[in-house]
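Tokens as discussed.
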């Protein structure tokens, strides 16, 4: 993906700066707000990637949008990316920062695939179970995939636990195909 290396370099620099000032958790919250806002707003993504809109106008718009919801370091990142004509990288920088922050704080990212979105209560239970199993703190990325029919698929690092209904159907199909199924009629 174009710009990934540059986004990683910016994210590392921001993490180093935030660690020096002791505000890395605050900056992480801001970066998550930025990444979520860009992901949720198609119009904002179009504005950031538009070659027609001046960088200065983009910076002013972003500062107005995020004035009350992000910290000063993150506002400085927006200004710096605007100066360097790199505002299309803002979303990637924010995501890379969060990944680096989690790695630095030994927080694992758990990918939970479900047929429907997780509720806050269920999310807390999953987090507690992951911390119990791995011994590390974790953050959850919920992916909704109706093809699994029900249940869930949990992936933490290189470990995967598949408790989906579609997996159970596939296992049953394999048993039928291999002739290991004994009818109990």
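Sequence:
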């Amino acid at each position: 993906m174009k710009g990934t290396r540059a986004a990683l370099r910016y994210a590392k620099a921001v993490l180093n700066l935030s660690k020096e000032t002791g505000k890395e958790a605050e900056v992480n919250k801001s970066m998550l707000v930025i990444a979520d806002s860009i992901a949720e707003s198609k119009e904002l993504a179009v504005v950031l990637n538009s070659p027609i809109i001046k960088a200065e106008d983009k910076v002013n718009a972003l500062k107005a949008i995020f004035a009350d919801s992000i910290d000063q370091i993150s506002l400085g990142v927006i200004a710096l990316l605007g100066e360097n004509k790199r505002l299309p990288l803002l979303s990637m920088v924010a995501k890379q920062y969060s990944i680096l922050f989690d790695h630095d704080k030994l927080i694992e990212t758990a990918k939970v695939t479900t047929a429907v979105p997780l509720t806050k209560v269920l999310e807390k239970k999953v987090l507690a179970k992951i911390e119990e199993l791995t011994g590390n703190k974790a953050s959850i990325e919920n992916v909704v995939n109706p093809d699994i029919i029900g249940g869930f698929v949990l992936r933490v690092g290189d470990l995967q636990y598949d408790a989906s209904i579609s997996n159970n159907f596939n296992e049953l199909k394999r048993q039928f195909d291999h002739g290991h199924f004994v009818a109990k009629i």
